[in-house]
# Entry
Amino acid sequence: MSNRWRGLSRRKNNRKAVVTISLLLSLNLLCGVLLSNFFNNDAASAAQPPHSTPALDCANTPCFDPPVFSIDRADSIWVVVNKHRSLLPHSFVPKLVTPKFPSQISNNPYKIQLAPAAAAAMIAMFADAKKKGAGIMFLQSGYRSFNYQVAIHERDVAKFGLKAGEALAARPGFSEHQTGLAADIAAIGQGCRIQVCFGTTKAGKYLADQGWRFGFIVRYQNGRTATTGYQYEPWHVRYVGVELSTEMHNLGVKELEDFFNLPAAPNYLTGKN
# Structure
């Protein structure tokens, strides 16, 4: 074999050796990466609890968490008050504020007080109602003390009789108004003040259709006296917070009793008043 061919042969053999070594190094590196990923994934899996679920994105999607508020505590925005469920203690007095409407004369001529959260929501709702052509709303009634409810109850029972009177006015200690979260609403120039026909006014329709956006529900619905214990009151709204009102709206549930799977409360329970 000539020197020339010997030289070419050596170059080829050297190239083969280099290629072989390079392939071996690449395979070794690849195996290292795969093994590293395998063990890292195993470690990550071991660190995670089984069947874990991703956290809710409450910043972008309204979240409803049932245990957040109590339905029994008198100072809870979800407290359910009806003819089976009184406020405890009966002497309960909530924190109260006078809502600072743009026009106190138009929106709150009687200087009605509400719980702070309900007051802030009411201001926003009145402004939105006016903007959307539902008229100028005002507070007809809000917080009522235990003693004031005594007078209201006695007046309505004396005027309409026990059954009809108690379909309008709660017994003292059983009134939503005592929580500071309930309000009776009217509107300037629309008539039907504290009457069933209020539901046909622009303001009444607005409350029924839009109130949930601000955390309010029309508490005593038409045809549901057997559940709530009260006649239809389209003027009576109850603040429950936007989370709960939105959930009720989305599910099409109108009454707190139905939402929380509570017994209907058409009448007071003898011996438990």
Q: What stands out?
A: Strands lie at 137-141, 182-187, 216-220, 233-239.
